[in-house]
Amino acid sequence: MKKEQIIIVIPYESSSIKTDIKILSEKFNIIINKYDWKQKSLYPIYVFQQLFFLLKNISKTQKIIIEFGGYWAVLPVLIGKIFNTPTAIILRGTDCAKISYLNYGSLRKKLVYKVCKLSYKYTSILLPVSSSLMYIENKYTTNENIQGLKYHFPKIQTPSRVIHNGLDSYFWNRIEGIDKEKNRFLAVFSDNQFYLKGGDLIIKLASKFNNCNFYIAGCNEKKSYHPQNNVHFLGKLTKKELLTEYNKAQYYFQLSVFEGFGLSLCEAMLCECIPITSSVNILPEIVGDTGFILLKKEINQLQEILNNAITTSNKNELGQKARKRIIDNFSIEKRAEKLKNTLENLQNLKLE
Does the N-terminal or the C-terminal CB of the chain have fewer CB atoms within 10 Å? Predict the structure, then answer.
């Protein structure tokens, strides 16, 4: 039986987007549409090229899938509407948020806000990776704590279906010969995510726990952080290097102010790190009873949590439970099944 042809529109290639492409290529004949949308001066050229691409391929295409809301989503949605071709936008986090004091969220920018509003209104379906991307009232901080698509665009009535991210538990696993190092903590974020992901809390915490070592992957050291000797900046790591760091770490921090999903958290849990996260978005649901939740962004509360974490007697059990929780709830197989089923039956589904 001949496969349906679908167009997948992507702004760049991330691990999660590559996973979706792999999943969908099993069911559909895929054509990828990609430009370097970070080059703002080239937007007019990209729009023209994208229009030509869509008009050339739309007659042979049954569905259009768009990763993230943004400039790249408008034409595919409108062309899909004109040619009666169903479209779906996969929402991942920044495309549903506006946190001005942290310079986070695509919706901070007026033009992007308008573009997203148009795309979200006319697409056939929205596919957020967590329900919190539709609406959430986080209590972790008091600044801009209400977020989500339904908050920023209250009049939009587009159907939605939550399809969680899926993790590869075969790759993200314990490595034979690498033992967990006592009181070793790990966090993963880039330089521009330092405050968004709680880097400031980690620096403060390190000064109170000289018997612990804190490692930050993806971020380079800056003098303005004033780090202690027990804070180690690892810079950008390869996937295999990151796997090694997860295997060495006993605990993993995800102290985000806002989090679309928490892929790094899930990767760490698959490697049996004990999770310590903030109380935002989907993070408490991911952690369950396998770790510790920081309810408020307060250093004293975090200090208490750390004392409990390093003195707990069932560290091995918690690590094993953390891995099992991700396998049971956020496997790549679960995402594949739901994503393929949703797209295959897009026009007939009763959606949330």
Answer: N
Query: For residue 248, what are the contacts with CB-CB under 8 A and spacing of at least 6?
Result: 178, 180, 181, 184, 186
> Which whole-number Å values give the CA distances from 4 to 7, 24, 61, 161, 277, in the listed order?
10, 11, 7, 22, 41
* 199-230 pLDDT tens trace: 999 999 999 999 999 999 999 877 777 778 99
Supply the CATH classification number for the domain 184-329.
3.40.50.2000
The model carries a pTM of 0.93
Q: Which CATH superfamily is domain 5-166+332-344 in?
A: Glycogen Phosphorylase B; (3.40.50.2000)
Q: What is the pLDDT of residue 346?
A: 82
265-294: average pLDDT: 98
Q: How many CA atoms lie within 13 A of 275 on its CB side?
A: 33
- Which residues does 213 contact at the CB level (< 8 Å), separation at least 6? 181, 183, 184, 185, 230, 232
Rounded to whole angstroms, the Cα distance separating 31 from 15 reads 18
Q: Residue 105 contacts by C-beta under 8 Å, 6 or more apart in sequence?
A: 94, 96, 97, 98, 99, 147, 258
d(CA 132, CA 154): 15
How far is residue 242 from each of residues 201, 230, 286, measured CA to CA in Å?
22, 19, 20
The answer to whether 336 and 166 have CB atoms below 8 angstroms apart is yes
Model confidence pLDDT, tens digit, residues 12-29: 998 899 999 999 999 999
